Amino acid sequence: MSEKSFNQDELDEPELDPRIQIELEKLNTATDEINKLEIELDESHTTFRMLLNESTRRLQALSRKLGSCIERSRPYWEAVEVAKVARVECQRAAVAYQRANEIHAAAKETVALAEQRFLSQDWKFDSAWQEMLNHATLKVTEAELKKAESGHEHRLRAATFRAAETRVQHLEEVQKRSIIKSRPYFEEKQLCQEQLNTQKKRIEELQNMVQKVKQEYSQSLTELEKISEEIHRRREMRRGPREPGVGAEKSSPVEETAKESLLEHLSRGMVQKYENDDNAFSLPDVNAELDCCDKHSLSSLSVGTSSERDDDEISEISHKLIQSRDVEGSSSNDWNELNVTVEKLKNLTTTIHCIED
C-alpha cells in the first residue's frame, strides 16, 4: 500500500494516529538512504571494473616485456605465499600454546594454594572446600588437555612452516636469475591484488548496508499495514455494516477478498522491487582474473617465438592455394578472398616480428 493510500484511508478519522507519521518518516528516511547507498554502490562497481581493467593492462604489458621467466619463477613466488600463510598460522598456534600454558599454571597454582591453606588449618575440611578443590582439580585436567592439544598443533604448524621455508630457499637457488628478472611483475601483481581486494571489501560492505536498510524499509511498511488494518477495523465497528444503495449491487465476499488481495499486492510492490535488486552484480575472483593476464601474454609470446615456423606454414598454404585454384576452378572473387587472407597472415607475422624487436 503506497503512502498516499495510507493517508487517504485515515481521512475519516477524527485524529491521525501518530504512529502513521512516525512510520512514514522512517519510510522516507529509508528511501533516501537506499538511493544514496545504491548510487555509491554503482560507483564502487565502476571503480572496481576500472581497476581490474587497468591492472590487467599493466600485467599483460609486463608479461610481454619479461617473457617466459615469469612462468619459470612462478613456483618460487607461490611458495613464498605459502610460507607467509604458514608463518602466520605458526605464530597463531604459538600464541594459543602460550595461553594454554598460562591457564594450566594458574589452575595448578589454585589447587596448590587450596591445599596449602588446608594444611595450615586456615580452612576447615567441609563440603564447600571439597567442592572448590574438585572444581580446581577439574580445571587443571582441562588445562592439561588443552595444553597438550595446543602443543601438538604448534609442532605441526612449525614443521609446516620449516618445510615451506626450505622449499622457498631451494627454489631461490634453482631459479635465481628468473626470480630477479620477474620480480617487477609479481610485485605489481601483489599491488593490484591489494587494491582490488580493498575495493571488493568496500563493495561487500555497501551491499550489506543496502540490505539492512531495505529490511528496515520493509519493516516500516509492514507496520504501516498493521496500523491501517487496525484503524480500518475500528472504523467498521463504529459505522457498522453498510447497506447498498438503491439499485446498487451488494459486493460478494469473493469480490471483497479480491480487493484485499489487490491492495496487499500493491503494498508489497516496492519491497519486492528492492528485494529483486539484490545480488545484481557478482564480483569476480581477483586472483583468478590476474592469473589469466600472464597466461594470455605467454600464449601470444609463444606465437612470436615460433614465427619462423609460421612463415613456412604461410608459404606452404600460399603454394597450395595457387595449385588448387586451377584444379578446383574457383571464381575470381573466391581467389581474391583467398589472396586477402594470405596477406592478413603475412601482416600478422610482420607484426609479431616488430613486437619481438
UniProtKB/TrEMBL annotation:
Key words, A-Z: Coiled coil
Biased amino acid composition, Basic and acidic residues: 232-242
GO cellular component: cytoplasm
The keyword Cytoplasm is annotated on this UniProt entry: no
GO annotation terms (biological process): intracellular signal transduction
GO MF term (any one): protein kinase inhibitor activity
Keyword Coiled coil part of the UniProt annotation: yes
Coiled coil: 20-47, 189-230
Region (Disordered): 232-259
InterPro entries assigned: SH3BP5 (IPR007940)
Pfam families referenced in this protein's UniProt entry, alphabetically: SH3BP5
Domain of life: Eukaryota
Family of the protein in this entry: Belongs to the SH3BP5 family.
PANTHER family: SH3 DOMAIN-BINDING PROTEIN 5
The protein's name in its UniProt record: Putative btk-associated sh3-domain binding protein sab
